[in-house]
Amino acid sequence: MRIILMNVLLLMCTYALCGQTLADTIQIKRGYGVSFYQKNRKLSPKALLGITYSNLEAYKEMQIAKRNSDASGVISFIGGFLIGWPIGTALSGGEPEWKLAGIGAALIAITIPMTTAYRKHTIKAVHIYNDGLKEIGYNQTELKLNLVSNGIGIKMTF
């Protein structure tokens, strides 16, 4: 029994445990827009807000970004509706109110700076979050049998 216990303890000491790995970082992929991925899963602004909660500075940046994203989404939806209504009226043979389409286009133009601010703050939050992660990898541990005052002991350095 004693030998089994010693072997188990030896295995536990030599096994490298990692709390956070490179898979915990958030990747930024640029294309037509900017997308954020963690563990090959695309992240929404709400998910990013939840992930960055553990890092206060990144969380504050992400809160600003989320507010911009939410406001941009609401305003662009209203703008799209105001553009689509006259187009639908025109297609159905009615008299379209093109002023509504102009107001909708103006609303969509207003969302461009909000989208840019969202992107800027989210990228900053992701960089802060990734920099805050401890770079933990497989630490090299070394076990040595040494003579100690009581007899033979195991010395573990890492």
Keywords:
158 residues; 4 helices; two-stranded antiparallel ribbon; alpha+beta; 3-stranded antiparallel beta sheet
Nutshell version of this structure?
The protein is an alpha+beta fold. The chain has a domain of 102 residues.
What is the element layout, followed by pairings?
Elements: H1 2-14, E1 27-30, E2 34-38, E3 41-42, H2 45-51, H3 56-91, H4 98-132, E4 142-148, E5 151-157
Antiparallel strand pairs: 1-2, 2-3, 4-5
Helix pairs in contact: 2-3, 3-4
Question: Can you characterise this structure?
Answer:
With 158 residues, the protein is an alpha+beta fold. The chain has a domain at 17-73 and 113-157. It is 58% helix and 16% strand. It has four helices and five strands, in the order αβββαααββ. It has helices at 2-14, 45-51, 56-91, 98-132; strands at residues 27-30, 34-38, 41-42, 142-148, 151-157. The strands form two sheets. It has a three-stranded antiparallel sheet, with helices on one face. Strands 4-5 form a two-stranded antiparallel ribbon. Helix 2 (45-51) runs antiparallel to helix 3 and helix 3 (56-91) runs antiparallel to helix 4 (98-132). The chain is rod-shaped. The protein starts with a helix and ends with a strand. Mean pLDDT is 83; it is low at 16-21.
Main sheet: strand order: 1-2-3
Span between termini: 28 Å
Low-confidence stretches: 16-21
Number of strands: 5
* Series of H and E elements: HEEEHHHEE
- What is the CA-based Rg, rounded? 28 Å
What is the strand content?
A: 15-25%
Q: How many helices?
A: 4
